[in-house]
Design brief:
The structure holds 2 protein chains of 2 kinds. By secondary structure, chain A is an alpha/beta fold. Chain A contains 8 helices and 11 strands. In chain A, strands 7-6-5-4-3-2-8-9-10 form a 9-stranded mixed β-sheet, covered by helices on one side. Chain A has a two-stranded antiparallel ribbon with strand order 1-11. In chain A, α6 (about 180-195) links the parallel β6 and β7 (about 200-205). In chain A, α1 (about 55-65) packs parallel to α2 (about 85-95). The longest helix of chain A is centred in the middle third of the chain and has 14 residues, at about 150-160. By secondary structure, chain B is an alpha/beta fold. Chain B is about 35% helix and about 20% strand. Chain B contains 9 helices and 10 strands. In chain B, a hairpin with a 2-residue loop joins β4 (about 115-120) and β5 (about 120-125). In chain B, α3 (about 65-70) crosses α5 and α7 runs antiparallel to α8. The longest helix of chain B is centred in the middle third of the chain and has 16 residues, at about 80-95. Chain B starts with a strand and ends with a helix. The chains are: A alpha/beta, B alpha/beta. The interface of A and B includes residues 21, 67, 72 and 198 of A.
């Protein structure tokens, strides 16, 4: 009698890289002037797991991305405006492709906003500025993002608006489903009240990793993708099918998983042009919500 | 090399479509091409196919045409913001309710793309991008490197597309050219009550963008009469977009009024 066939345990589906359209840069590493309690990569003033990137470090990746036909760049952290070389890095990037910088806006004053505006106007490409805000008042926002962060973000938003930007405000979805539209509308009203002529709001789901895992309990063992989840699913909806993240430690599959060593795909973009096993709880969130970190 | 006229998105705007077709014929177009999205937004989606047939227009399918032909639940425009999708749903429901079986069959037979050899250059005519019908190729959001990759992958020297509704063109460093011909059913968010299309003169590969005036007030009044959102009519009357603005990249958004 032959032995019974082994029962297959967890088969992890993979996502192919369909095209390298978007390249992200962890340009501030994991250093941030805030210590948000829901940060999925645990950024803060002392987290140096991923280091600040210099212009000399980013340039070869920008060139490599261009040779591979990149469409756009994103710059994040940590807080990118802590990086003293951010302007020269953005200058290099905007000579090649449209770019977006993600910030908490607390370090943006009038001089900073007008320097950014000058960079944007010198380029044929758009420079988007995305500002994180997680509440409509200091009490709700600062509970997550730290004391004074609401006032600081609003000052930054006003200066960006005065300089001619229409910043995109990114809100982490800390509320339950259902009142999404109403909350968006309230964000629009609040932003108009502070002087933004054309408020733009993007809502992102919560990723229960990093510091957020401590806050909300992280992912359950069943929140994992199986091949069945991906039957008939359009892989283009997963951002990892068209983008990569560059940090001081190499190239990762996406902005969410830079603390997972299995998500490091190699030292160069070329080395990262391969499929990735969707083994993380965060992969389930992207699949379930259709989320993308892009604008 | 004969002159050709190429336009995008008539969106049910029958007066804009007729004005453009008559202008192109008046200029002596050897051929006229439509890059898809016959319906949506405007008041007379059913008038589109007969007009295109009358003027012997060669058309490719837009996402709207595919969606109607396949009776999909939404237009597949590719918007990501709820505000944009809210208006997109209204326009699609209106158009879907008025699509005849003949219209759907006609749209279902439109090709994804067309290739021409014109003056030794390989033209590719498509709706969004060569790789995806509903991909937005915005001027300020498309790098040279990306557009060159699209052209190389498609084996084209010249990509003619639409979908964004805003016309622009660029010669790329290695010689390929991208021409987004814009859309005629909606103004170009420039404050002009005109339908813009692309004219390729007999000896030229670069486009001349032609604004054609039409009776915008009549179309807006029809839209109001049809019960379409007043914001749609406002766009036609003022030349400034009032809806589906969230998808615009920073530079394109900054040029508009809203």
């Amino acid at each position: 009698m032959s032995a019974p066939a082994a029962i297959p345990i967890a088969v992890v589906p993979t996502v192919p890289l369909l095209a390298l359209d978007t390249v992200w840069f962890q340009v501030a590493g994991t250093l941030c002037n805030l210590t948000c309690s829901h940060c999925f990569i645990t950024c803060g003033p002392t987290n140096r797991r991923h280091a600040m990137m210099s212009r000399a470090e980013t340039r070869p990746y920008l060139d490599e991305a261009r040779a591979l036909g990149v469409r756009d760049f994103y710059f994040t952290g940590g807080e990118p405006f802590l990086n003293r070389e951010l302007h020269s890095i953005l200058e290099d990037a905007l000579a090649m492709a449209p770019s977006t910088v993600l910030t908490n806006a607390t370090l943006i004053d009038a001089a900073e906003a007008s320097r950014l505006r000058a960079l944007e106007q010198e380029s044929r490409y758009s420079l988007e500025v995305r500002v994180s805000l997680d509440g409509l008042d200091p009490a709700s926002n600062d509970a997550l993002r730290g004391e004074g962060s609401f006032a600081g973000a609003l000052t930054g938003l006003r200066e960006l608006s005065r300089a001619g930007f229409d910043p995109i405000v990114t809100v982490a979805q800390t509320w339950s489903d259902g009142d999404d539209a109403a909350l968006r509308a309230r964000f629009h009203d609040t932003l108009r009240d502070v002087g933004l002529a054309r408020p733009r709001v993007k809502v992102l789901p919560m990723f229960r990793v990093g510091r957020e895992a401590n806050r909300s309990g992280g992912y359950g063992s069943r929140e994992r993708l199986t091949p069945e989840h991906l039957l008939g699913f359009d892989m283009q909806k997963l951002q990892c099918s068209t983008s990569r993240m560059v940090t001081s430690r190499g190239v990762y599959v996406c902005p969410i998983l830079i603390d997972s060593e299995d998500a490091r795909l190699g030292p160069t973009l070329r080395a990262s042009l391969r499929s990735f096993p969707l083994a993380h709880g965060a992969c389930h969130t992207c699949w379930a919500t259709g989320a993308t970190c892009r604008n | 090399m004969e002159p050709i006229a190429v336009f995008g998105g008539p969106y049910g705007n029958h007066l804009a479509l007729r004005a453009v077709l008559e202008d192109a014929v008046g200029r002596g177009a050897g051929a006229i091409y439509c890059l898809g999205d016959l319906g949506g937004f405007g008041p007379r989606p059913g008038a589109m196919a007969p007009l295109l047939e009358e003027f012997e227009v060669i058309a490719v399918a837009g996402n709207y045409d595919r969606a109607l032909a396949q009776r999909r639940p939404d237009c597949g425009c590719g918007y990501t913001h709820p505000k944009d999708n809210e208006y997109a749903r209204i326009a699609y429901a209106y158009t879907d309710a008025r699509a005849s079986e003949r219209d759907r069959g006609w749209m279902g037979r439109l090709p994804e793309s067309l290739r021409l050899l014109r003056g030794g250059r390989r033209y590719l005519l498509c709706h969004g991008s060569p790789r995806q019908t509903n991909e937005f190729l915005w001027e300020s959001a498309s790098s040279d490197a990306f557009l060159e990759r699209l052209a190389r992958d498609a084996g084209a020297d010249q990509i003619l597309c639409t979908h964004t509704g805003l016309h622009w063109q660029r010669e790329l460093p290695h010689g390929a050219r991208i021409v987004n011909v814009g859309a005629i059913g909606r103004p170009a968010n420039d404050g002009l009550r005109a339908a813009w299309y692309a004219w390729f003169a007999a000896d030229r590969h670069d486009a001349q963008f032609v604004p054609v005036p039409y009776d915008a007030e009549a179309v807006a009044a029809e839209m109001d009469g049809e019960g379409l959102p007043p914001a749609f009519g406002d766009t036609i009357r003022t030349g400034w977009w009032t809806t589906c603005l969230e998808i615009l990249p920073a530079k394109e958004r900054a040029r508009g009024r809203w």
